[in-house]
Amino acid sequence: MSDLPALLGGPPVRPAGPPPxxxxxxxxxxxxxxxxxxxxxxxxxxxxxxxxxxELAAAHQVPHALTCASGTLxxxxxxxxxxxxxxxxxxxxxxxYESTFLTVHALGARPVLVDVAPGNWNLDPAGLxxxxxxxxxxxxxxxxxGGIVPMREVMxxxxxxxxxxxxxxxxxxxxxxQGRPAGTWGDIGTLSFGGSKLLTAGRGGAFxxxxxxxxxxxxxxxxxxxxxxxxxxxxxxxxxRPQLAKLPTATAxxxxxxxxxxxxxxxxxxPFENAxxxxxxxxxxxxxxxxxxxxxxPRDLFVRALxxxxxxxxxxxxxxxxxxxPSRFRAAGPLPHATAAHAGCVVLHHPVLSxxxxxxxxxxxxxxxxxxxxxxxRSDRP
Length: 382
Fold this sequence. Notes:
Blueprint: H1 26-38, H2 47-60, E1 64-68, H3 71-81, E2 89-93, H4 98-106, E3 110-114, H5 128-131, E4 136-142, H6 151-160, E5 164-168, E6 176-177, E7 180-181, E8 188-192, E9 205-209, H7 212-221, E10 223-224, E11 227-228, H8 234-245, H9 247-262, E12 269-271, E13 285-290, H10 292-295, H11 299-308, E14 313-315, E15 330-331, H12 336-344, E16 345-349, H13 357-372, H14 374-380
Helix pairs in contact: 1-8, 2-8, 3-4, 3-7, 9-13
């Protein structure tokens, strides 16, 4: 069989492409069928949303959990519960999900961008104190691409300055951060149940809270009279409950597959470092620091070549300060590591991590094959 990369006409390593998500799940199918048979799926106030909220609270060891229509909405409601409004400042990493930045603007507040840690391109607490001003009302911390933000340090700094913290665990349900479940260090934690997420209902989100006053503020803002205006549906909750029950097992399995993959990487593809003690990632998109010189291909060509092999690599996020007018944010000093993340992050999407050791070997072989033929791929580029 030809060893040529698929981009040069050879056979792909994974001809069927990336696995579908969500995968078939008999427990979800059984739960959905039972809810339909009982008529529970069409109710305003059935048993499943309340049941899911209780199970989320128990799984995360917090007294309050509240669901809503999306993870982005959860971040907005969390900031509103912290009383962020026009004229306030919200600190966040310069390498971050764009919707979080836009949510700050939607509140009339101003994003303040801090640099990320060089080893994992997640928010670096070392930049927080210098970013604060008398207008600072909140910090948003996201654990991205298998990276972990040291939340104990974030909370110590923020609370010394009476600044609230939203811990966005959209990419890492099931992770542990310094001995606690991800999403439970912040004053408010947020989760996402979007269609690609580790816990998925197509759409949806949730809050995790310790403080009953913050819980009431978030809950009241989400209500219009008697009804929540952007709720999770009963049917979505039905689909999520079996997934939540199996999350610890699924998290451990993904971590074992990632370890197999990390042992077989060529030069130029470096996994995110996680030096935060007593912490375990939950891999949604596995982040790598990509060095085009060391690997031998420009990043976009690397991604195209791996996609042709049936492996779901993508470029990471665009850094928030790149290509935007400086009037849209305040930079808290230079942002060299966020700039490096903008140019150099690649991510492997997680569905393949739910597979077998053979799947991990195929991903590693696809990367190795592209690396072996890097000169030919570079020469063939138009």
